[in-house]
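ARCHIVE RECORD
Type: protein–small molecule complex
Small molecule: MTE
Source of inputs: curated submission
Record status: active
Notes field left blank by submitter.
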Amino acid sequence: MTERILASTCHFFPDTCVPTMALEPVVDYPFNAETPLPALTTELTPTNLFYVRNHFDVPPINPFTWRLQVSGLVKKPLTLALKDLQTLPQKDLTVTLECAGNGRKNLVPQPSGVPWGHGAVSTAVFTGIPLKLFMAQAGIHPTVQELVFTGADCGEVAPGKQEAYARSLPIEMLSDPDILLAWAMNGEPLTPDHGFPLRLVVPQWYGMASVKWLTEISATNQPFKGFFQENYRYETETSSRPITKMRIRSLIGWPIHGAHLALRPIEISGIAWSGRGAIQSIYVSTDGGASWIRASRKRPASPYACTPWRLVWQPPCSGNYTLMVRALDRLGNQQPWDPVQNLHGYGNNSIQQIQISVGSIG
Ligand code: MTE
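STRUCTURE (tokenized, with ligand):
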């Protein structure tokens, strides 16, 4: 646990915020933790502050004996060590990952599942090889409908039923040159929590698609029905839809909810992201939604990365304020006032509100 709680010096707001930051555990076993919101104001999240979503314990992996198997309906089944993969042309891609359950804690009534606040979202530079390039080596049979990605972690999904974490992608997605088999994150090998030695990174999709601790890719002509495929769905009384791309969302990283600040200009900042269209504009309200001011935004590091934003605001007088942020993307998507309800509380992209107080600080 100690290395997980590595404190990092706060470079963001040296005079105003807490001096150190660390991941905020939400569940201890298996380890699940949020990124502290003040770390979500810049393009990249340091790896030691990148949120962690584990369904089971981190699997023990020996890098010397670990192999990736490619099986099923392929012309040439493969068994490869990491060094074999690393001989192929690699690329770096900055990608924002968000857990589909992010924001569940704020739903009323609160659905079962990990009670994430707002911090199950982070951004890193991932290094790896395009899945498309890699699978070309194996050769896909023309009848293949899906690729199934299996992780080394395994556990009980129903009484007496053990299953590995596995997810599939439709074969059409193989044409995407930016889905990566990644072995590095922010320039270093993946850490055990983030999928060492190899993980899938599926840009724009909610994080459940980015299978960690990858051991097998299997080509199939059947729809995959594994537990983690069937469970990540928007379920209502009348409908059931698979969860795919991230909904548009934004958050305030600084100040934090409950902050008490001096009566002087305040830099409000955070990030916005969407798996559906580039972020076009970000608006902040300092009066509980009565009026909105356009925030300035920074160019995202890639089409798959979050957009950092900021607004310098002079509070008119001492008192309590409700701050809000909302984003719009180029396809016209925007955040709803109220959460779009579904059984498991997935995809809650409703407008965030925080309360702060402003006045003399003695
Ligand atoms: N892959 C495996 N093998 N096991 C898991 O529990 N969790 C998924 C995904 N890949 C998971 C997994 C979910 S739900 C999310 S949101 C992301 O990993 C989180 O990635 P991170 O822990 O690196 O942030």
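CURATOR ANNOTATION: The CA atoms of residues 92 and 177 lie 12 Å apart.
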